[in-house]
Amino acid sequence: MSGIKICGAGHYAPPKLVSNADLEKIVDTNDEWITSRTGIKTRHHCVEETHSDMCRHAAQTALERAGIKPEEIGVCIVATFSSDFLSPNAASLLQRDLGLLNDTVCFDINAACSGFLFAIHTAECLLAASPRKYGLVLGAEMLSRFINWEDRGTCVLFGDAAGAAVVEWNEEYESLGAVLHCEGDSEMLGVTGSGHKAPPQIFMQGQQVFKFAVNAVPSCMDQALTRSGKTIDDVDFFVFHQANTRIIDLAVRKYHIPEEKYYKNIEKYGNTSAASIPMVLSELTELGKVGPGSRVMLVGFGGGRAWGAALAEFK
Ligand code: ACO
Fold it and tell me: pTM of the predicted model, to two decimals?
C-alpha cells in the first residue's frame, strides 16, 4: 500500500466580477437563460493579474494551510492550457516565484477540465520516487482570454481562477485509485491552439457535452469505487467538476447523495476548467465541511473528451 493525502488547499479568483447582467449588455443573452441552463450567476475575469499571479496566490494559501515550506516540495504540477507562456511552463514559474528548490520536478499537464485529476495522479506516482515527499498540485485557467464573444452558447460559461493542493506521499497511505480516460475528441469541446489555423478560442457542442457528461460521470465513479474496494457510503464528500449545475444534479440524484455531502460554487465562478476541483477542495476546508480523515471523491470530465475519478483522503 502507498499513496497520498491532501494536507492543505487554497484558491484564488481575480477581483473583477462579471455578472449575467453585465453580459446582457454585450451579447444577446439574459440572466434567466443562463441561470436556468447552467446555474451560473457571476464569473471572475482577470484584468491586470497574470496566470502566474493566480497560481502563486492559490499555492501560497495551500502551503500555509498545510504548514509546509517551499523547500519541502519534491514535485510541482500545474494542470492548465492557458498559461502565460508556452515556455517556460507555469509550474516552473511557480518554482521561481515560491522559491521551490531547483531540483523540484516541475511541469504542466493539459487535460482540460479533468486536468487536476491527471495532475494529482501523476504527483502520486512521482512522489513515490522523490526524495521529498510533499507535492504541490494546481489547476489554473485564464479562460477569459479564449472566449469567443460571437458565440453566446459558450461566452457566458467560463471564468478565471486557480486552485491548489499540497499532498503528502507515504507508504502507509491509501492510493487515490484514480481512473482516467481520454478519447482525443477535437469536435465536441476544446480550445484551438497556436498551431491551428483558427485563432485560439473555445468551441463546444453543448448538447453533446451534456450527453457525454451524464454517462461519463457515473461510469468513472463506479470504476473508482470498484478499484479502491469502497462503496458510495464510504465517501464523505463528492467533489464534482463545476461545469453545469444540471450535470451535478443528475449525478447526485442517481446516487442519492444527500445535500450535506456535495457542494456547488458554479454560481459564483462559472466553469473554471482545471481549477474547479481544487477550488472546491479549498472552499470546503474554509467552510469546515471536510477535515482530517475526510474521504472525498474527485470527479472530472470535459474538453477533448477526457474524464476520470479518484478517492482522496485529507490528512
Ligand atoms: N443566452 C440565450 N440564449 C442562448 C444562449 C445564451 N447564452 N446560448 C444559446 N442560446 C439559445 C440558442 O441559440 C438556441 O436558440 P434557438 O432554439 O432559437 O436556436 C437555444 O438557446 C438552445 O440552444 P442550445 O445550444 O440547444 O442550448 P442548450 O439547451 O443545449 O443549453 C448548454 C446549452 C447550457 C451549454 C447545454 O448544452 C449544456 O448544459 N451542456 C453541457 C455542457 C456544459 O455544461 N458545458 C460547459 C463547459 S464544458 C465542461 O466543462 C465539461
Answer: 0.97
| H or E segment to which residue 66 belongs | helix 51-66
Atom of ligand 1 nearest to the CA of 189: 48
Active site residues: 113, 241, 271
Identify the segments of the chain with pLDDT beneath 50: none
Does the Cβ of 156 fall within 6 Å of ligand 1? yes
The per-residue pLDDT for 1 is 81
Using the mean position of ligand 1's atoms as its centre, give its distance from the Cα of residue 33 in Å. 9
What are the pLDDT digits (tens) for 270-293? Answer: 999 999 999 999 999 999 999 999
For the domain spanning 1-315, the CATH number is: 3.40.47.10
